[in-house]
Amino acid sequence: MKAFPGKFASAATLLILLALTLASCGSEASGSGPKSVTIHLGYFPNITHAVALVGVERGTFKQAFGPDVTLDTKTFNAGPSLIEALFAGDIDIGYVGPNPAINGYVKSKGSALRIIAGASSGGASLIVRPGAHIQSARDLNGKKIASPELGGTQDIALRHYLQQQGLKTADKGGTVQVIPTKNPDIVTLFKQGQLDGAWVPEPWASTLVQQDNGQVFLDERSLWPGHQFVTTNVVVRKQFLDQHPDLVEKFLQAHVDTVQYIKSNLDSTKTIVNSEIKRLTGKALQPSIIDSSFKNLDITYDPLAQSLYQSADSAFALGFLGSSKPDLHGIYELKPLNAVLSSKKLAPIAES
């Protein structure tokens, strides 16, 4: 009698194994087609992120990926927040300024991200309030100047400029108060007279000028050779790049297509960008602000690597990148971009 349970157990085991084998075969059959993938794309509702705004609205990214890929989008106020989301795996591809990209690369020891393209150059200015009586750099002493976020691209640019002018920020024992503040709040505080100035990207710079009578104290382009410096890069989560190089190249195809569309269709681009800004922020911009913003920047897929390296030097000098100068060798992965450019018979982009 004791032998029977063993026989029944063996038979049951065989049946279970057979069922699992059949299920496995069914899974492989059903999974033989393309697997569904969700791509998480991050960007800002800023004109410096026009490529993202236009690419999303026109469906260019979604069309490039095809039906088996879901595109999930999320907007941010400034770069450090986007990089944190990338670290958490919540963002796969993002439009972000050079300094947050540098920070993310350094903090992760090169494991978290790669820069795969540029998106915009220029489009950042120091705007001052008329009543603050700021006529020269020395007049910034004792003033309150805002930037969008601590450690962000404009924040580093502002602090570096002050350092170059021999001025110290309050946290370093000086008198200039640098106040990281969200862009919409900067507009409110500027209007109320609680800020003396702000180093901000477009469209916020033009908004302060046209709506709040701000004055352009400094167009950041004047500080750079050839008036070109990277404002927005495209970064990819390294793990996503390793797992889905084909999707990254498809994204870059759409990215380059969108850059070319913008350059050839500026009027329709302005309409699309304003519509997207209204959708994302609840408020459209005046057409004159849109016009001014686009005059102050250049849309490009070139990451302008030399300007990023210089930004890294500035961030290091300010104490944002640790005690030893970081090695940024490897921060760029431009092979996918150059493959796209080659297919379009366009000149390749160098990393230096």
From TrEMBL:
GO cellular component, one term: plasma membrane
Residues passing through the membrane, by range: none
SUPFAM superfamilies registered for this protein in UniProt: Periplasmic binding protein-like II
PROSITE patterns: PROKAR_LIPOPROTEIN
Subcellular location(s) per record: Cell inner membrane; Periplasm
Family annotation (Pfam families): NMT1_2
Region forming the signal peptide: 1-29
Keyword Transport: yes
Statement: the UniProt record of this protein carries the keyword Signal: yes
GO molecular function: ATPase-coupled transmembrane transporter activity
Gene3D superfamilies: Periplasmic binding protein-like II
UniProtKB keywords: Cell inner membrane, Cell membrane, Membrane, Signal, Transport
InterPro entries xref list: ABC_SsuA_sub-bd, NrtA/CpmA_ABC-bd_dom
PANTHER family listed in its UniProt record: ALIPHATIC SULFONATES-BINDING PROTEIN-RELATED, TAURINE-BINDING PERIPLASMIC PROTEIN
Family: Belongs to the bacterial solute-binding protein SsuA/TauA family.
Name of protein: ABC transporter substrate-binding protein
Biological source species: Ktedonosporobacter rubrisoli
